[in-house]
Design goal:
This protein folds into 3 domains: 14-134, no CATH class; 159-258; 288-382, no CATH class. It has 384 residues and is α+β, with helices and mostly antiparallel strands. Helices cover 43% and strands 11% of the residues. The chain has helices at residues 14-17, 27-38, 59-72, 76-85, 87-93, 104-116, 120-133, 159-174, 180-191, 201-224, 226-229, 232-248, 318-325, 345-350, 372-375; strands at residues 143-151, 249-252, 255-258, 276-279, 285-296, 302-309, 380-382.
């Protein structure tokens, strides 16, 4: 059941009782003074069942604690500790000085609720509305978009393990519709690494052929059953298994073999199938996702966040992020001309290289050599 903060507030809050302990001019002081203007319990009421269970920790308190955790980059355990003992955090959360803190597991549950209901964007919307009302965006803003790698939580697996685990996932989704003998064989393959001589190329090749044969049989069984074909869980698992086999295995004159090279959209983990191989630069590689953040250069307000595939190009997310940022009434992004985002010869000469078709127009004013903006051009797109 939804827990709510008393709308009348309390004189016993840390921001009142121990104001002298709150760091002056800090993020915590600003959040203590203005957090109630952008975060309210009603914004997250749809995440809770009405009239069922005991009252929760008020979601406005939870979200403000999560903002502090993001600011300080703390783990859930450390976040829980600071909500209990840190005066800066208690002031920012809007709680009393003797607040007993929030359990570490409560944060993971809150994040799951927010992700399931797409409620994380509500805070962005409220922040932007408040900024517009305060007159922060009186002039067309200068938007800065930065792409950075996000390492995935799943382990990168070999072709053999990917096929085995994806077969297990499909078998579990098919349930009783799968023939018992085939189900037992797949269960044995997916639960334990086969005891073969992995140093012997012939043994590995024989095991690969066995895996592909079982996978083909399993996919055929799933496709033949009309009831399973209409099951989205089965369809998703079958699609992943097919993708893994096709991306990593090829037929040669000597039989089936591991494909040389990397498929463009290769699945790399069975526990997180959305992970991809990505590159931050020619020498820096990562496995995971790519995060795009757009901010207003003058106010440093975050206007939007987007997570894309790790193998996506840095500039591909610029236009969608800009479009979503300008959907808020009162926000306007200035552009060089109506042909944006096609770069001109002037832009290309300024940066000493031509830009791809998606590359945004450069700033009209020159940037000094050696400045952060000039050094970070490879990862940031400065738009006007």
């Amino acid at each position: 059941m939804l827990g709510r903060v008393d709308p009348q507030g309390s004189l016993l809050e840390t921001r009142h009782m121990r104001r002298q302990l709150v760091t002056k001019g800090s993020f915590y002081e600003r959040l203590a003074d203005h957090g109630h203007e952008i975060v309210s319990d009603e914004d997250f009421a749809h995440l809770y069942a009405p009239g069922k269970g005991r009252p929760s920790v008020p979601p406005s308190v939870m979200v403000r604690a999560m903002l502090c955790a993001t600011h300080d980059r703390t783990s859930d355990a450390e976040t829980s500790r600071r909500t209990r003992v840190d005066s800066d955090w208690k002031a920012a959360m809007g709680v009393d000085d003797w607040f007993e803190g929030i359990g570490a597991t409560t944060f993971s549950l809150m994040r799951a609720r927010m992700v399931a209901h797409d409620a994380d964007s509500a805070l962005f919307a409220k922040t932007l509305e408040r900024a517009v009302a305060a007159g922060i965006f009186r002039q067309p803003l200068m938007a800065v978009i930065d792409s950075s790698p996000v390492h995935g939580a799943g382990a990168v697996a070999s072709t053999y393990e990917l096929v085995r685990k994806m077969m297990g996932r499909l078998a579990r989704a098919m349930g009783p519709h799968l023939e018992l003998g085939l189900a037992a064989k797949i269960l044995a393959l997916s639960t334990a690494k086969p005891d073969i001589d992995w140093q012997d190329p012939a043994a590995r090749k024989e095991h690969l052929g066995e895996l592909v044969e079982v996978a083909a049989t399993l996919l055929g069984s799933a496709a033949a059953d009309k009831e399973l074909a209409a099951n989205p869980e089965v369809t998703e698992a079958a699609g992943l298994l097919s993708q893994v086999v096709l991306q990593d295995v090829e037929a040669t004159e000597a039989g089936l073999a591991i494909r040389q090279g990397v498929a463009p959209d290769r699945v790399v983990s069975h526990s997180d199938p959305e992970m991809r191989h990505g590159r931050k630069s020619a020498s820096r590689r990562f496995d995971g996702h790519k995060l795009d953040v757009i901010i207003d250069e003058a106010s440093e307000l975050v206007l939007g966040v987007e997570v894309r595939a790790g193998n996506a190009g840095d500039g591909e997310g610029a236009v969608p992020l800009l479009s979503r940022a300008t959907e808020t009434e009162g926000i306007e992004v200035a552009t060089c001309c109506v042909t944006w985002p096609i770069p001109t010869g002037t832009c290309a000469r300024r940066w000493n290289r031509p830009g791809p078709p998606w590359w945004p127009r450069c700033l009209p004013r020159p940037t000094p050599v050696g400045s952060p903006r000039r050094r970070d051009l490879g990862r940031s797109h400065i738009l006007e």
